[in-house]
Amino acid sequence: MASTHKTKALEKWLTANSLWNTELMELRPSPIGGIGVFAKQDLDPELEEQVLLLRIPKRNILSARNSCIANLFYENSIGGIHGLILAFIYEKALGEKSPWFDYIDSIMYRNDDGSLLQPVGCWSKTDKALLANTQIDMLNILDSSELEQVFTESVTFAKAVADTIAIPRELNVNTTSSTEEENRARFNEFAAVVQAITSRAFEIDSYHEIALVPGACLFNHASPSSDNGDGAEHVHFVCDAGCCTKCGEQECDHDESDEDFDVEMEDDGFEDISKEVSGQEDDGVEDVSGEEDSEDGWESDEELGSDEELGSGEELESDEELEPMTEITLEHITKLEEKLKQDIEDEKEETGSDREEEDSLDYEISPELEEIFSMDASECCDIVLEFPALAGDELYNTYGSLPNSLLVQRYGFIIDNNPADYVSLSVQVLKYIKKQSAVRKRVKFWETIGYDLLNEMIRQEKKKHDHEHDGTCDDGCGEEEEPYEEEWELEPRILANGEPSDTTYALAHLMVMPEAKFAKLAKTKPANMPLALAKLLSKEVKAYQLVLDWVKEKYAKYPDNGITGAQYTALYEQAKESRKRVITGILKSEKLALEAAEQYLTSKL
Asked: TM spans, by residue (predicted)?
């Protein structure tokens, strides 16, 4: 959890470098851990003045393109998440010289006791063994080899540019003078940094690719919901992804050549700041901490590599229409901007001054913030209010309908009773197919025709159902769609409620149907195939029995001597340490789902 002084420093940074609506929200310790964002008053998305909670210009987000060594990334063809990880590490090494210092300093990757918050792939062998046969194991998340490869590539990069900028501590590996234990400690810290970065990163556009968006990452996750029930999200992240890949502008004169970009990158203020990191004295290095030279914590566009430096382009007209990105459209936000700007002008006329006292957002509107008010939405990243909240409520974002296995991998936490959880039966299904040589033609049919077509039918039927209801019926209206695996081998599963997915049951039905019926199905004309496939969802006792057999085989593979879901529930409730809660929470969820599946399938026999 971030300390109080770090939280205050972060809030100060946000009010200086973004539109952070302090009238409507505040930072406080969250009951789920760490820092959360809380409503200071009742919030209603129908009120335009309450829609925009955060606006931060893209020039102020932390990305590989905005970092102090953007030119080195370009020269070495490094981008994406790898570029973002390195950008964070190098900016962190700058300390207070980084324009993102207060934001970076608030990102914690250690527990209160000083231990590292490591990704699950870096856990001890003992802890990882407890997760054998779980979804985390099935998805190969326990394997750290990919992360080790990224570390090796990062160390190689750091050594290659060491003459230009000093190697950060996390990448300072020496195979000759350092011990294996010291080098392993470097890797472990690097892994913790990676977990911290990937858990906060947002997809931005084709120029920045992926970035840290100060303020946006403070909104904790809740499972998505259509009606904003208990625990559902309140806000959405909005960012226009369309722009030039060379300069980040919406409209510019760049062609397929990189010549303009190369020239501009050579003079981006990097040389001065790199000398500071390397320990070389240079009176020309300006203080970008914002304490003396500027009110908003940013020096100038030249130091950060502005849009003008990276390639000039035509600015969008203020009234240009933009494509909507979410339910809260950019057109909606543009109207809100115009209203906010008009409010500022009206107040200036009333007071005859530039607002010397605090305004409705609890801070003075400096020229820099007025500029942010006037910026086109396509130049910014926004957090907008999507669902209402009461005063004192924690405001949640949603990272999507993700099972706990992926939440652990990407963000390091799980959700109790996660409706998106499932238990894979892929191993059991493939084992069955391997033993049953007579079903090979059926597998080929499923692979080439049945699986994709039936999935599309199920989705179309669900959309039709949702359009005909108001979301209040009991048949699943408004719920998230089941995850759709492109490869049918990965799809067989038991859902969190204990029922097999539709395609899992249909596959079982296909496997057990009489040969004559399968031959007729395989010869069905394309126009009649959807109706024929729909019959695979009809009740068939043998199909239920086959799925039940797969469930029992899966349950028996956990190396825990038959600990039940109820027993794991008790262990989960007793666990205090985060790693133990993840382990017991994952096993609790899977065991309960399989036990519910056995009960459900048995009732169908």
From this structure: none
The three-state secondary structure class of 494 is: strand
Q: In terms of pLDDT, which residue wins out, 55 or 272?
A: 55
Are the C-beta atoms of residues 393 and 38 closer than 8 Å to each other? yes
Kind of pairing between the strands at 52-57 and 201-203: unpaired
pLDDT level of residue 446 (50, 70, 90 thresholds) = very high
Q: How far apart are CA 599 and CA 601, in angstroms?
A: 6
Query: What is the number of H-type helices and E-type strands within the chain?
Result: 23, 10
| Residue of 240, 237, 232 whose CA lies nearest to 321 | 240
Q: DSSP states of 46-113 as a string?
A: TSGGGTEEEEEEGGGSB-TTTSTTHHHHHHTT--HHHHHHHHHHHHHHHGGGSTTHHHHHH---B-TT
**φ, ψ (nearest 5 deg) of residue 139:** -90, 5
Q: What is the largest CA-CA distance in the chain?
A: 88
Predicted confidence (pLDDT) per residue in 75-130, tens digit: 999 999 999 999 999 999 999 999 999 999 999 888 878 889 999 999 999 999 99
Which residue from 579, 219, 228 is spatially nearest to 399, judged by alpha carbons?
Answer: 219
Cα distance between residue 258 and residue 149, in whole Å: 29
Burial 516-544 (b: 16+ CB within 10 A, else e): eebeebeeeeeeebeebbeebbeebeebb
Reply yes or no on whether the pLDDT at 3 is more than 90. Answer: no
What are 311's two structure tokens? Answer: 């390639």
- Tens of pLDDT, residues 37-86: 999 999 999 998 888 999 999 999 999 999 999 999 999 999 999 999 99
Domains, the chain, ranges and CATH? 419-603 (3.90.1420)
Find out whether 265 and 306 touch, Cβ atoms under 8 Å: no
Residue 178, Cβ neighbours under 10 Å: how many?
A: 14
Rounded Cα distance, 205 and 240, in Å: 7
3-state helix, strand, coil in the chain (%, to 5): 50, 10, 45
Give the DSSP H or E segment for 237.
strand 235-239
Backbone angles phi, psi at 382, to 5 degrees: -125, 150
What's the confidence (pLDDT) of residue 223?
72
User: What's the Rg (C-alpha) of the chain?
Assistant: 27
Closest CA to 529 of 439, 445, 450: 450
